[in-house]
Every structure is written in structure tokens, then in C-alpha cells.
User: Which sequence fits this backbone?
């Protein structure tokens, strides 16, 4: 399985139904199930005979790229098809392996590193989260910049399925119906996103010039809640008042110091998010980032409000 | 439209039906219609829960690439997906534009330059064919070698639809029923291939390590005929004897000298093929080439014999 990029130029002989080889190669590639891209000239569509060939290509699933061989931009774009997405929270060492491979392969279209999480550069994290963020996110971002690898860094904040269902209570498997533990004063705003929405925003962003070498923050207004407001929302849904146990910052810091690895890291990340509000306590400046729900207003993302209904 | 290469590593949380983002990104990519490749570990298939995710990916049309992030080979291969095929007999200048773009984009998987034709390095052509072959084929091949661009050079010889139908008579639109003009003594062997067979062989070859930096000669035994034998085949089919008009080499050379451009080039190419036998008068050495019908014996290519039946 390969990706076939065919530079196909319609010739007059094609019109006579005769046998220029280009058309047959494009067709064979599509019939073999290879994702096939054909560069065709814009003028192709205005001539009925040419448009017919283009239609035949389309019916076989060929992706027509309109452009001209004399325009270096389209030619580069048609060849530079590959976007690499690293989708897992893997170790920095694994990220480096992917980046090394990208460097060898050359100039891919875009790389989306495995940083689907909180934004690292502007967090106020204590150890061991500080060094974790630096190694997993910041250092990798710097390397991409140094290497000139075109990237989009997706900062998707919390995953809904992991945190919505538990009201962000470590160890829980469903939203509590009696007691919730809240770190800090519960007023820091945190962001919860559904996984399929993150997928949609990622697909929209990966080929968008506005997200090139930028951080895409997925911070939809309707999914940005303080823990106090989130618990209130859940209370209204189940018509019940929960006991709220607040853990002040000093105690959270003590938990981090006293916990063993990897629990100390988890608590330090929670401290950054729930106490320091690091998911939301900065403005997204055009110099470094864009916000997904602003950039793609037509995406109807799932709201926390709807999402929690299933657990009522 | 992009090609998405996702480095997806199954995590235990996936098993619990919960929400690791990798799976969602892979699914979103396929649902958006992007050709999607996912690197998954070999071990994924032995575990039922993992196999289930792999099955889900497959049903969405995701191309699973088995490998490991620790194996640089698979990682490079999964990123290096793009094969560029230049399918038209375009000018050398246009070929150079494509090669320049490939050089900028970097290390693509394979380039198949637009040399679907006669093999240039071993022809005994007179001018203006000699310089034509050098500019269109030989110089481009040398440039690819110099630049280290992985290539396969498809030498498909004559196109069936263009030459079968006319018994290689310039200007004819159907096989003659009275007279044929034969250049030289008619004993040089020439090769005729159907366009769709060329497409199939090209697809087989483009990702085959045996064709890397080699010339793929499409020279199936059943389609290799001298003009004398070809005319005899046609005569048997129509049960009629044709008048054979032989043009000796000296007269062909005079035609080349006297003709105006581009007819002089056409006659010089015909001289190389029909008089000198340049399609077949050399052995295909493993150092530079492979023969398609030997390499892919399972391809049932169309024969000249069958092909001519439609005109009887």
C-alpha cells in the first residue's frame, strides 16, 4: 500500500479515446486501492472531454488536485501529502524516534506531536509535573521549531470520557452521588472535551494554514467550568446536594511531596490544573495559538451539560 | 485532503472501552476520508480486545501497518508513503520541475519518471532521436541517480492502442487490409503492450524492492513480434495476403534527413525501433533491469493475438 501522486496532464489524444498511458496509470492506482492523487490542470474542467476523464477519476476515488506543473506551490503541495500524527501519550524517547524518522524522510506536510493534553509552556506546575511538562511537551516543541518541521500542537485539555464520568475524582468510575473532593477553592476554570470532538477539530486543523506552527487550544466556552460550577450542574441534574470537601493548596502540595511515583506526578498535574487554573488562566495570543471552537464555529461540539445526562 | 499517518499505540485503557485519544484520531481521520495509515504493534492481533480495535480500524478503511516504534525501518516506511508517478510524455523541463519539487519535499518512497517508452540507454538512434532520448530519458535518469532519489524507470515499449490498431503504420487508424510499409527487413523484434497491463505492472513494481533503482522492461514473450511475423499473424486472421513494401535502411535515413520537424524525430525513432531493433536487441542484465512478465508471472497480460481479433 502506497500513496500514489500522479502528475497527469491531459493530452489531446485522450480525447480521441485513445491510449495515453497517464489515464491508465491513474486508474490502475485507484483500482489497486492505493490512495491516489492526480494533479490536473484547472482548464481540464471547462472542456467536456477532459471533464469526463476527471469524472471517471473521481468515480474511482481519485483525489483531483487542481494546479499546474508550472506553479511550484501546487506541485510541492501535491507531493507533500503526508501528515504524521502521533496519537498517544508516549515517552519523550518515542516522540524523538518519530521526529528522527520525519527528519530522515524529509519535509512532511505537518506533524501533530503526541501532546494531546494540557498546554505546557504556560503552566505553573511544581515538581515532578514541571519537569514532566518540559520533557513531554516543551522540549519537543522546541525541537520541532529548531528542525523546521511544520507542526500543529493540539492542546485538548481534559478528555471527557476520562474526567467527565468521574467529575475528575481520581479512582472514581462514575459521577459521585454523595461527596466530591475539590482541590483548592474550586474556582479555577478547567476544560472538558469529548474525544470525538477532539478528533473532528484535529482533522479540521491538520491541513489548515491558520494552525501551522501554532497551538490549537480546544477550549469551547460551553465546556469550560470551575469545579464548583461543574458540581452544581451535576447537583441540578440529580436534584441532590453533594458534600464538597475542599483540599487547600498547602495540603495538595504536601500530598505531592508525600506521594510515591507516579501518584506524585498525578497530584502535581492536578495542582496545576485545579488549583492554579493552568488550562485557562492565560489569553490565547495570535502569535502562538488559536482556539478551535472560534476557528471552526460550524463544528457542533458536545457540551458537558448534554454529556452528563447519560449518568443521571 | 491529506494522507494521515498515525502512530497509534494501544493502551490498556482502550480495553476498558474508555477514552484514549489515539483511537478517536485514527477513526476521525478515516471518517474524514483521508487515506489513513496506522502503525500498530504486531502483538495487537493476538489479544482479542486489541484485535477488536484493529478490526474497527479496518472496517473504516484504515491501512494497518504492523511494526514497532523501536524499529526505525517500519517507522520510516510508514512515514515515507508517497510514490510520485509522472505519467505523461512531457518536456524534460517539466520533468525537472517535478524532480526539483521532490528534492525540496525530501525523501519520497519512489519516483516513477515519465519515461513510459523505449529504453534510452541502449538505443542506436540517429539524430534527432539520439538527442531526444538523451534529454528525455538518459539525462533524467542520471539526475535521479545523482540526487539519490529512489526510482523505477518503466520501459513499456509500444502502446497497444496506439500501434496495434495500425500495425505501426504512421497515419493509419486501423490495421491495413491491403498494403503495409515495413522499415528495414522486417526482422527486428518490437514489443507491443496494452495500456491496462502497463498500469498493472506499474502498480506491482512501484513498491517492490526488486525494482528499486532499476529499469522495469515490459517485454512479455507473447507480445514480442517482428513486423514480418506481426503482418503474418494479421494475414492469418483476415485470411488475406497483404502487399509488403519494404523500405531499406538507407531510404529511412534519407527520410529522416529530408523530413521537417517533428516528422524527422518520428522517423528517427522508428529507425531505432524497426530497423535497429532497439526494443529487444540487448539482454536485460540484473545490474540495471528486470523484466515485468518474469517478475510477475501471475499477471495474465493481454496478447497481441487476442487484441487484434477485435479488428477482424
Assistant:
Amino acid at each position: 500500500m502506497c500513496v500514489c501522486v500522479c502528475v497527469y496532464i491531459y493530452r489531446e489524444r485522450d480525447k480521441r479515446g485513445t491510449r495515453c498511458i497517464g489515464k491508465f496509470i491513474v486508474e490502475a492506482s485507484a483500482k489497486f486501492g492505493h490512495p491516489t492523487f492526480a494533479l490536473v490542470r484547472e482548464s481540464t474542467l471547462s472542456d467536456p472531454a477532459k471533464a469526463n476523464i476527471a469524472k471517471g477519476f473521481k468515480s474511482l476515488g481519485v483525489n483531483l488536485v487542481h494546479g499546474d506543473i508550472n506553479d511550484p506551490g501546487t506541485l510541492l503541495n501535491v507531493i507533500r501529502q503526508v501528515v504524521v500524527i502521533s496519537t498517544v501519550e508516549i515517552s519523550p524517547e518515542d516522540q524523538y524516534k518519530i521526529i528522527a524518522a520525519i527528519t530522515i524522510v524529509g519535509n512532511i506536510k505537518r506533524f501533530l506531536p503526541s501532546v494531546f493534553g494540557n498546554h505546557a509552556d504556560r503552566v505553573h506546575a511544581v515538581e515532578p509535573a514541571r519537569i514532566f511538562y518540559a520533557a513531554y511537551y516543551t522540549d519537543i516543541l522546541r525541537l520541532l521549531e529548531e528542525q523546521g518541521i511544520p507542526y500543529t500542537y493540539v492542546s485538548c485539555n481534559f478528555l471527557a470520557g476520562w474526567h467527565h464520568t468521574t467529575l475528575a475524582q481520581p479512582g472514581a468510575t462514575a459521577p459521585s452521588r454523595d461527596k466530591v473532593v475539590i482541590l483548592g477553592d474550586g474556582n479555577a476554570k478547567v476544560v472538558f472535551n469529548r474525544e470525538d470532538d477532539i478528533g473532528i477539530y484535529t482533522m479540521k486543523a491538520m491541513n489548515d494554514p491558520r494552525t501551522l506552527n501554532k497551538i490549537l487550544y480546544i477550549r469551547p466556552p460551553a465546556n469550560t467550568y470551575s469545579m464548583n460550577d461543574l458540581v452544581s450542574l451535576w447537583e441540578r441534574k440529580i436534584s441532590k446536594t453533594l458534600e464538597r470537601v475542599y483540599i487547600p493548596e498547602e495540603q495538595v502540595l504536601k500530598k505531592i511531596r508525600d506521594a510515591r511515583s507516579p501518584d506524585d506526578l498525578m497530584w502535581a498535574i492536578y495542582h496545576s490544573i485545579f488549583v492554579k487554573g493552568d488550562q485557562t488562566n492565560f489569553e490565547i495570543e495570535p502569535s502562538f495559538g488559536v482556539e478551535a471552537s472560534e476557528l471552526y464555529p460550524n463544528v457542533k461540539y458536545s457540551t458537558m451539560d448534554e454529556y452528563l445526562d447519560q449518568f443521571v
